[in-house]
Amino acid sequence: MIIVNTDFIQGYSVRETLGIVRGNTIRAKHLGKDIMASLRTLVGGEIKEYTEMLTEARNEAVLRMEAEARRLGADAVINVRFMTSQVMTGAAEILAYGTAVKLQTHAG
Questions:
Q1: In what order do the strands lie in the sheet with 91-105?
Q2: Which numeric CATH code is attached to 2-105?
Q3: pLDDT value at position 63?
Q4: Which of 74, 78, 90, 107 is most deeply packed, by most CB within 10 A?
Q5: Beta partners for 21?
Q6: pLDDT, tens digit, 9 for 90 and up, residues 57-95
Q7: What is the mean pLDDT of the chain?
Q8: Cα dist. 24→9, 30, 105 in Å?
Q9: The whole model's pTM is what?
């Protein structure tokens, strides 16, 4: 499965548009990591506990989006975007979405 944030894939053209696909996950702060993050804000620098949490959340959202695209029979997902929002205090949603398509190679 090809996943890109552009509206084209070099060497291919879109044969069929299957529709929007999405994947999301909601993650909450872990008390232990939250304490470490709070301490890190005192000294400055990257809050690695949250970076790790958001990276894992983005990866999970992409996997779920890809699974939805596969169910539709897609070869690729184009125009992939990410969105995040707070759903409650201490919990955030990560959403990945794009357009599922079937491809054909360019005759060359």
A1: 2-3, 76-88, 91-105, 12-28
A2: 3.30.110.70
A3: 98
A4: 74
A5: 98
A6: 999 999 999 999 999 999 999 999 999 998 887 788 999
A7: 87
A8: 24, 19, 31
A9: 0.84
Domain ranges of the chain: 2-105
Contact 62, 70 (CB under 8 A): no
- Residue 29 is which amino acid? K
Asked if the model's pLDDT at residue 36 lies above 70, the reply is no
Residue with tokens 């304490």: 35
* Sequence-distant contacts of 32-40: CB under 8 A, at least 24 apart: 34/90
Pairing of β 76-88 and β 91-105 = antiparallel
Look-up of token digits 């005192």? 42
Alpha-carbon separation of residue 76 from 7, 45, 84, 95, 106 (angstroms)? 11, 37, 23, 18, 15
Q: Which DSSP symbol is given to 107?
A: P
